[in-house]
Amino acid sequence: MSHHLDSPIARQDIRLDITDLYLFRGETGTVFVMNVCHSIFGEIPAPGYHPEGMYEFKIDLNGDALEEITYRITFQERDAQGQQGYAVRCIRGSDAADPHAQGQAVAEGTTGEIVATEGGVRVWAGKAGDPFWIEPDVLHAVGHAFQDGTKVNLGGWDPGWAKNLFAGHTVYSIVLEVPDSELLAGDGSNGRNGRIGAWAVSSLATDPGGWRSINRVGLPMIPPLFAQYNEDLGNRLNAGRPADDFATYGEAIAKAIAGVVDAYETAEDPSAYGERVAHRFFPNMLPYQVGTAAAFGFAGWNGRSLTDNAPDVMFSIAANTPIHLGIGKESVTSKPSKTFPYVPAAGESAAATA
């Protein structure tokens, strides 16, 4: 349930730290975007993608919070120019949860270049601008509130001081666009009117020949809400599978929500409110109706576009009171594009522009 530098395990190798997952309608199909390797970490010897890692988009087609489709991307070592070759495979059915299943080869390419297949799949991987924004003072105050069961303490803070911590920073993106038909059953429907659930996972190969899950992300902002000051929870949230989330974390998350709601006195029964929201957060998948415009907002969640205001939405729902960062998409220094690969172009680093 990753986010920027969200856990000790993720910080061990920033190339496996998933900062965000996006899911939206593209020019030709459904777009999945996974961002990793954030420049806020600082200099690393070989930025990009881990050659012993595995990056996966997981897709639930029938509402059981288990993957029926996995798109798996693996990368080669960086060459002398810093580029990396990669391969995309698709694993379907009962094998989709097996990290050793081979599935079907979909595409091969090199970072920085657009790959388009005869089957209508498009892929791009490379350095990009970070489209996400966050205000550090609000972020840290929210983390303390949900850790301590208090109101969000912004006493003495002026919204006029708000700034985007990630302005000018970069990530390494994986952009995958697939035809809508690839996410639907042969009769044109997956039995749920085209509704899917998606999450992203990064894993690292282990010496015995297995795979260790490093990061998992579905909905945005789960670790910033509940694990900023609980690193053990941060590690545990990145393990496991969505189908087990509520049984594993539901009670603790409901209690954290209830503490803040009780402090604000915005519900007659804070515990009941906390449980309802915990059920909404878990299983931790990003819901989406294939073929529709994405919108992650207060009215509902349908994918997530590159310009949706996820922090305001998630913080306010969890607290049951408005929480506003004081900034929005205007604070992103490099803007997303309406054409493939959609992600912002990589600009100068924040350090270089400071």
Keywords:
354 residues, alpha+beta, seven-stranded antiparallel sheet, 8 helices, disordered N terminus
| Chain-averaged pLDDT | 92
Strand elements, count? 14
Number of domains: 1
Output the number of helix runs.
8
Helix-strand makeup class? alpha+beta
Q: Gap between N and C termini, in Å?
A: 31 Å
Strand residues, percent: 25-35%
- Amount of helix: 10-25%
Described by the principal axes of the CA atoms, the overall outline is globular
Description:
This protein is of the alpha+beta class. 21% of the residues lie in helices and 25% in strands. Strands 3, 4, 5, 6, 10, 11 and 12 form a seven-stranded antiparallel beta sheet that branches. Strands 1-2-9-8-7 form a five-stranded antiparallel beta sheet, with no helix packed on it. A hairpin with a 4-residue loop joins strand 1 and strand 2.
Task: Please outline the helices and strands.
Elements: H1 8-12, E1 18-25, E2 30-36, E3 53-60, E4 69-75, E5 85-92, E6 104-110, E7 115-116, E8 122-129, H2 136-148, E9 170-178, E10 195-205, E11 211-217, H3 222-226, H4 231-237, H5 245-264, H6 270-281, E12 286-289, E13 295-296, E14 301-302, H7 310-319, H8 350-353
Antiparallel strand pairs: 1-2, 2-9, 3-4, 3-10, 4-5, 5-6, 7-8, 8-9, 10-11, 10-12, 13-14
Summarize the entry for a quick read:
By secondary structure, this protein is an alpha+beta fold. It has 8 helices and 14 strands.
